[in-house]
Amino acid sequence: MERKIKLGSRWVGDGYPAYLVGEIGINHNGDINIARRLIDIAKHNGLDAVKFQKRTPEVCVPPEQRSIMRETPWGYISYLEYRKKIEFGREEYQEIDRYCKQVGIDWFASVWDQQSVDFLEEFHPICYKIPSASLTDHDLLRYLHSTGKPLILSTGMSTIDQIHAAVDVLGLENLLITHTTSTYPCEPEELNLRMIETLRKEFPVPIGYSGHEVGLIPSVVAVTLGACLVERHITLDRAMWGGDQAASVEPQGVERLVKYIRVSEQALGDGVKRVYPSELSSLKKLRRVQ
Known about the structure:
By secondary structure, this protein is α/β, with parallel strands linked by helices. The chain is built from 12 helices and 12 strands. It has an 8-stranded parallel beta barrel, surrounded by 6 helices. It has a two-stranded antiparallel sheet with strand order 1-2. Strand 11 (207-211), helix 10 (217-224) and strand 12 form a beta-alpha-beta unit. The chain is globular.
């Protein structure tokens, strides 16, 4: 089986440039203007797509957490009310779809429940992301599989047996798996980047990396280990309010990340030893015995 998948107009997999995703997620804090600014940053710096998150709060928030009070930009409100405030509705997604088409960048979303799948279907996103929290929700996995769209399976908080069970439900066709650790931000000793190699051995599908670390180096290393997709949260400012901001990349960091990954891809080469034309003058001048 060829290790590739098509996302929008791009092939993603072995032999193709890494597909780079800026996860806006909920870093927009419920503000469509912030979302547009983050889309602009992604496009300007050469990311291939942006990603959002879509939940139905009444379905996704456990009953015991709904009435827990917390400080938010909207005041001291319940967790359920907060989840509703942070959630974009139809009007906002219409604007996301319009604006991404205008600037020329693909978009998709993580979906946490079947109602969210139904909601997003009318926008025809290029694929769906299955969040790590939903990896064991086989009913949702079957529902997503029924859409026929490419699927990206995130594997944080999961055992290898749970990943195998999820793949058994989804099948291998039109599937990409991302290694991740669901800690925000994640310390280097828990990134376990060699899992990219492990997943490549376990599953004959494209393997990517969703990073939640502080800094850029691990995401670049992920590409050298075989990740064909890299996803990082992006933000206007890591000091902004929100649980994902601290593990996100600011605009200048996005620019450097793309540059580092593209240079690394060039530097990896093909593993075939050769004498380059640029070496010939040194060869002639320095080598005494031919």
